Q: What sequence folds into this?
């Protein structure tokens, strides 16, 4: 009897907690269909007078489509370049012995603890005065193109590639680039896909660095657009903001729900094995 | 097939360097030659890892060095820099707003990390016990906030936590409880920020703990139960100690995460009320882009880094001293 009771309590708690986690998403969605006055009268969960006016305003006055495209192409190009470079680095650390390997690897892992804010100010000055990259996507693509987390992540996958396979290809006269591209890449493809999703999501949701770099309205990404939708103090445009939030969250949510098994394991894979 | 690729790439570096003049001269200098030889022999792995180190040098090492130079100057971001020596650091020593932002991070850390870590361990144990149906669904729902834009989430929380019209205070009213000034009171604002952080990071930490639990042999817990331990005792005496390295890892991430917090307080409370949720990163950001004091912001960044390093080292010392396994 006690075991059944315990299990019932646990079930109720887990379901309750899950509902609490989902509630903000539902509130965001429902508010995005409410007229402004109703958001602040907000007693009811479902919109009393559902309207699409918030979405209209988002796409017409704030040209959200352009911002979605900006977010998308920046995330896609950053992801493509980073995943390739991280796979190369991870492959080298996993499958080659070379002088300084241990030191370089520890150095790289240590660099992960360096908070971004430490380099934010000088990096901004560099981007503006040396590279002239303000209002361009480059600062969001180049500095993070080969990053420690990604290399460490790919190394875990590369360790499982059998050495015999690589040696056999070398005996057959394959070049190192050829081996990487035609043997290593296909056998570690799940890792490439997981890392691509992780990179894409983190670029899509990135806020602080785009906020410092993207000043003109036409180059803004979605999170920067949301921040500038705020409006004057006291009259925050929560109606349009909620529509914008839905637009920002929904694509990632769909990707997550489709690929969640791979993704959840992937995001935290470095944590315990390492 | 692979040979075709080799043709397309053209001459390999090895073939090129064999024909290079001056090769004989290098041989006369054994250490240098050996070094050159090692690089040549290991050129592929060195080439493959080089993007990280080249980018790290350009976009991390150089800025950190430049930042020190910057911190010795007064500079509004444009025009000439004025050398002021260590004046920025001297000013920082008495800058109560900056130290207050450090204190805020520490307070927020102690508000949410213990609760979140405890919940994550319990939740992971429940998921690991395996009797729950639809495991994948619960895990996905709890993890979902982690992939959400914190800008979107921050605004939504602002709406839900609004004192007059927020859903949470409406729910409290139904339960005949008085409204709570979630975002308008110094302590409640910090707690609200903690709630947002727990919402965003509970799933992530649960999955880390779950992976850790799966490395603990079930027989250990079973054996303890056979010896008469209750479930709670077995959890406290066996599961938690064995999970220790994973807990340490997760808390370390939380320390770095809390001290690097920007988006959450920037959107949820704008650092307010009366700077109660102003974090060091918001502080550095506004010193740079609002006050236009680039040199001073660089000094702040340096001290910020020093403090994070110090806290992490202290934490590692505490952890290793109280390790029961040692």
A:
């Amino acid at each position: 009897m006690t075991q059944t009771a315990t299990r019932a309590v646990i079930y109720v708690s887990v379901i309750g907690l899950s509902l609490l986690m989902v509630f903000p998403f539902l509130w965001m969605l429902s508010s995005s269909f409410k007229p402004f006055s109703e958001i602040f009268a907000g007693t009811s969960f479902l919109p009393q007078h559902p309207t699409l006016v918030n979405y209209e305003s988002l796409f017409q006055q704030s040209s959200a489509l352009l911002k979605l495209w900006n977010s998308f192409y920046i995330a896609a190009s950053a992801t493509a370049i980073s995943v390739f470079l991280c796979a190369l680095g991870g492959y080298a650390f996993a499958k080659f012995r070379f002088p300084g390997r241990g030191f370089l690897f520890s150095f790289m892992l240590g660099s992960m603890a360096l908070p971004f804010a430490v380099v934010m100010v000088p990096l901004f000055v560099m981007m503006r005065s040396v590279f002239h990259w303000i209002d361009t996507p480059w600062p969001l693509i180049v500095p993070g193109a080969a990053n420690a987390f990604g290399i460490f992540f790919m190394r875990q996958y590369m360790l499982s590639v059998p050495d015999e396979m690589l040696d056999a290809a070398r005996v057959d006269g394959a070049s190192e680039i050829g081996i990487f591209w035609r043997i290593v890449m296909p056998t570690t493809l799940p890792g490439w896909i997981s890392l691509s999703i992780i990179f894409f999501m983190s670029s899509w949701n990135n806020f602080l660095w785009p906020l410092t770099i993207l000043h003109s309205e036409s180059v803004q990404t979605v999170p920067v657009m949301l921040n500038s939708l705020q409006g004057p103090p006291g009259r925050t445009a929560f109606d349009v903001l909620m529509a914008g939030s839905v637009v920002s969250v929904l694509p990632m949510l769909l990707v997550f729900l489709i690929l969640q098994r791979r993704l959840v394991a992937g995001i935290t894979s470095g944590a315990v094995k390492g | 097939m692979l040979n075709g690729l080799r043709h397309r790439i053209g001459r390999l570096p090895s073939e090129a360097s064999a024909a290079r003049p001056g090769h004989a001269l290098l041989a006369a200098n054994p250490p240098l030659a050996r070094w050159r030889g090692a690089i040549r022999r290991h050129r592929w792995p060195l080439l493959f890892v080089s993007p990280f180190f080249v980018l790290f040098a350009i976009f991390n090492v150089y800025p950190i060095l430049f930042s020190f130079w910057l911190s010795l100057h007064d500079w509004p971001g444009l025009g000439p820099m004025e050398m002021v020596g260590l004046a920025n650091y001297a000013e920082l020593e008495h800058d109560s707003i900056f130290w207050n932002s450090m204190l805020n991070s520490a307070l927020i850390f102690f508000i949410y990390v213990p609760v979140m870590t405890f919940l994550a361990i319990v939740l992971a144990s429940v998921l690991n016990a395996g009797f729950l149906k639809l495991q994948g669904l619960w895990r996905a729902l709890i993890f979902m906030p982690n992939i959400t834009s914190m800008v979107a989430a921050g605004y939504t929380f602002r709406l839900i936590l609004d004192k007059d019209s927020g859903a949470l205070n409406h729910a409290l009213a139904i339960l005949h409880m008085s409204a709570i000034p979630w975002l308008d009171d110094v302590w409640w604002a910090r707690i609200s920020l903690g709630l947002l952080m727990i919402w965003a990071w509970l799933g992530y930490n649960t999955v880390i703990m779950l992976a850790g639990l799966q490395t603990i042999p079930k027989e250990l817990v079973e054996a303890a139960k056979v010896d008469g331990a209750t479930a709670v005792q077995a959890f406290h005496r066996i599961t938690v100690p064995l999970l220790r390295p994973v807990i340490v890892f997760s808390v370390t991430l939380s320390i770095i995460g809390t001290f690097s917090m920007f988006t959450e307080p920037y959107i949820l409370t704008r650092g307010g009320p009366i700077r109660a949720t102003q974090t060091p990163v918001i502080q550095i950001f506004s010193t740079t882009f609002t006050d236009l004091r680039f040199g001073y912001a660089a000094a702040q960044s340096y001290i910020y880094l020093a403090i994070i390093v110090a806290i992490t080292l202290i934490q590692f010392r505490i952890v290793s001293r109280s390790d029961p396994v040692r």
